[in-house]
Amino acid sequence: MLLNDRYNEEWYGVHGALTAIERLVAEDFPRPDGNEAKTRYQVDALRALKSELAALVEGWDEQAG
């Protein structure tokens, strides 16, 4: 497989995953400004997701400079 083909596959895979995460959070987790009760699972899931995304961004920032 050519490098450009592999890049395209990975880029679209990341884009698809981020779109799915955005949709999941919007549809399955109550908005922070709403009155709906939040569960411990929701808090823990959002914290874990935030942590993983922050680590990814931090790693990228460190590589960039």
Characterize the structure shown.
- With 65 residues, this protein is mainly alpha-helical.
- It has one domain.
- It contains 2 helices and no strands.
- The longest helix has 26 residues, at 3-28.
- It is elongated and about 50 Å long.
**How many H/I helical runs?**
2
Residue windows where pLDDT falls under 50 for at least 5 positions: none
Strand content: under 5%
Number of domains: 1
What series of H and E elements makes up the topology?
HH
- Classify the helix fraction into a percent range: over 70%
Mass-distribution shape: elongated
Please count the beta strands (DSSP E, at least 2 residues each).
Answer: 0
- Helix-and-strand structural type: mainly alpha
Biggest sheet character: none
Tell me, rounded to a whole number, the average pLDDT: 92
Offer a concise description of the structure.
The chain has one domain (3-64).
What does the secondary structure layout of this molecule look like, with pairings?
Layout: H1 3-28, H2 40-64
Keywords:
65 residues, mainly alpha, 2 helices, 78% helix
